[in-house]
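TA notes, week 10

Several of you asked for a full example with nothing omitted. So below is the full record: structure tokens for the whole chain, then the designed sequence directly under it. When grading your own attempts, check the secondary structure regions first.
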């Protein structure tokens, strides 16, 4: 605690006061309005949508994981952030209008319109389980490591405290309180991360200091296909499969989109989030390289905490940086709690009790959020199953579960032939294989002796495994489509037409730009983002 001044402590307390004040202020008038509680009244502007998506995504595992991976292998881990940007642009231009015009509350409800209620229930239940392990558990584990390394706090005590504080306004306020606090938290986490990055950059002597003290391999973003962590083949073909599931089909992200007040706000907000996703390379990955130079003994998961603990930052600024960490953790947890609540209420309770009043549904939503908070506290002891290099662990888990969902969703959007039976079969078979691979990895991490065949399976890079599982899922769909007759689903036909219409709208926009020499703001932002990515690839290749 000697590294923390009274000014730093005051800043932390002030941050918590502002967050709780915002949370409780926007909790008003949510007593009996279903749309207000779960979708913030569908009245969120594009700036809040974009910052909320970014804040929901960035959590403690990004701070500790991206910096940790950067300190071990360099800039290559930033490729996951860049691949996410392409998917966000796709979401904004093509899927945002489809989601928005469908007038649904959840992604599983959207899938029921395309398929049937079995898909809706399966996807809702599966999403809740995944949130527990890839959102809540991983965030708490990373937060525990950070606060233990900085303050010496017990990992379980710090996790429980964070969950309780976040749960207070998540339960009472619903989506509006969550999104409004996330907007503030997004600004705080960016500010804190920028301050530490600038201080670290100065301490190492700029890029000249980095280039002279680190291996040249640290500045190569495209690794050989044989690389155990970041093969270029896996990055180009495997990472987008994971990204499509996460950004385009996950209620955790799409719920922010569905809360927008118009299609344009949804699209522009998504593009703003895509622009903000350029930041992690500079404010989260590069600090790992700074730590590798300044504190080589603290590489890996301790890298980011080592920078905070050191004298790189003057007293008074450390409070802002730690407030940024808290903001990242709390924004992601509140998003997970809110998503679990709406999935249970909308896709289970409301189906079973369709005559329930809006007031009762909001009450059920609050109870579901409370259950999620209690569940988060109960699973804290499970953090020991998580391996080191936490960001890679998170990506590997997602690579095992995302391919079947991505395959089914893409075929559901662009093919009229995909039937409900084929979709549910693909999901079940694909997820059994993916979860089986995850179980093998956990057993290996806990020193369990495995059969040579299983060891060989584990030797396949997780990104390459993601590609293989995606191709298997596509094969199942194509084979079953040959035997199954297309279902007569009027909404499926309308959905396909809507997708085609959005593609035509995008193409017409590009043609108009060429003819009239006039760009709208969305196209300008998309082009600027893509140019920056190409520039980064050219610089660090």
């Amino acid at each position: 605690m000697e590294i923390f001044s009274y000014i730093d402590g005051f800043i932390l307390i002030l941050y918590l006061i502002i967050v709780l004040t915002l949370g409780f202020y926007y909790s008003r008038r949510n007593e009996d309005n279903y749309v207000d509680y779960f979708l913030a009244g569908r009245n969120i502007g594009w700036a809040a949508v974009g910052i909320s998506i970014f804040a929901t995504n960035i959590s403690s595992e990004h701070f500790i994981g991206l910096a940790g991976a950067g300190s071990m292998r360099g800039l290559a881990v930033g490729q996951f952030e860049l691949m996410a940007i392409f998917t966000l642009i796709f979401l904004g231009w093509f899927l945002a209008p489809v989601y928005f015009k469908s007038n649904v509350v959840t992604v599983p409800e959207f899938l029921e319109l395309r398929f049937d209620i079995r898909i809706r229930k399966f996807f809702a239940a599966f999403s809740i389980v995944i949130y527990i392990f890839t959102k809540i558990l991983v965030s708490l584990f990373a937060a525990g490591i950070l606060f233990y390394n900085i303050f010496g706090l017990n990992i379980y005590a710090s996790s429980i405290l964070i969950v309780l504080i976040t749960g207070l306004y998540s339960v009472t306020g619903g989506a509006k309180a969550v999104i409004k606090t996330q907007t503030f938290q997004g600004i705080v986490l960016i500010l804190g991360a920028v301050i530490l990055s600038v201080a670290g950059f100065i301490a190492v002597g700029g890029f000249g200091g980095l280039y002279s003290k680190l291996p040249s391999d640290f500045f190569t973003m495209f690794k050989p296909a044989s690389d155990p962590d970041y093969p270029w083949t896996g990055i180009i073909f495997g990472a987008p499969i994971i990204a499509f599931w996460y950004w385009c089909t996950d209620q955790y992200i799409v719920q922010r989109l569905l809360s927008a007040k118009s299609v344009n706000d949804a699209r522009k907000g998504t593009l703003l989030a895509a622009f903000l996703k350029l930041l992690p390379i500079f404010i989260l990955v590069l600090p790992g390289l700074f730590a590798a130079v300044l504190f080589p003994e603290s590489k890996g998961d301790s890298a980011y905490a080592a920078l905070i603990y050191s004298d790189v930052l003057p007293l008074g600024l450390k409070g802002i940086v730690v407030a940024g960490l808290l903001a990242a953790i709390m924004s992601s947890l509140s998003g997970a709690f809110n998503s679990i609540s709406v999935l249970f209420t909308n896709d289970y309770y409301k189906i079973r009790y369709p005559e329930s009043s809006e007031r009762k549904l909001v009450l059920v939503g609050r109870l579901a959020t409370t259950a999620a908070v209690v569940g988060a506290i109960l699973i804290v002891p499970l953090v020991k199953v998580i391996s080191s290099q936490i960001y890679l662990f998170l990506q590997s888990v997602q690579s095992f579960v995302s391919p079947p969902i991505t395959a089914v969703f893409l075929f559901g959007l662009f093919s009229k032939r995909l039937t409900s039976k084929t979709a549910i079969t693909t999901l079940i078979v694909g997820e059994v294989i993916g979860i089986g691979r995850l179980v093998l990895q956990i057993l290996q991490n806990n020193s369990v002796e495995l059969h040579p065949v299983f060891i060989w399976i584990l030797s396949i890079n997780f990104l390459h495994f993601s590609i293989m599982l995606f191709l298997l899922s596509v094969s199942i769909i194509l084979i079953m489509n040959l035997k199954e007759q297309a279902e007569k689903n009027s909404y499926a036909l309308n959905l396909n037409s809507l997708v085609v219409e959005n593609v035509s709208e995008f193409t017409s926009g590009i043609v108009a730009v060429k003819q009239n020499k006039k760009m709208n703001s969305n196209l300008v932002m998309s082009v600027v983002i893509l140019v920056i990515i190409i520039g980064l690839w050219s610089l660090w290749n």
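The first helix runs from residue 6 to 25. Use that as a sanity check on your answer.
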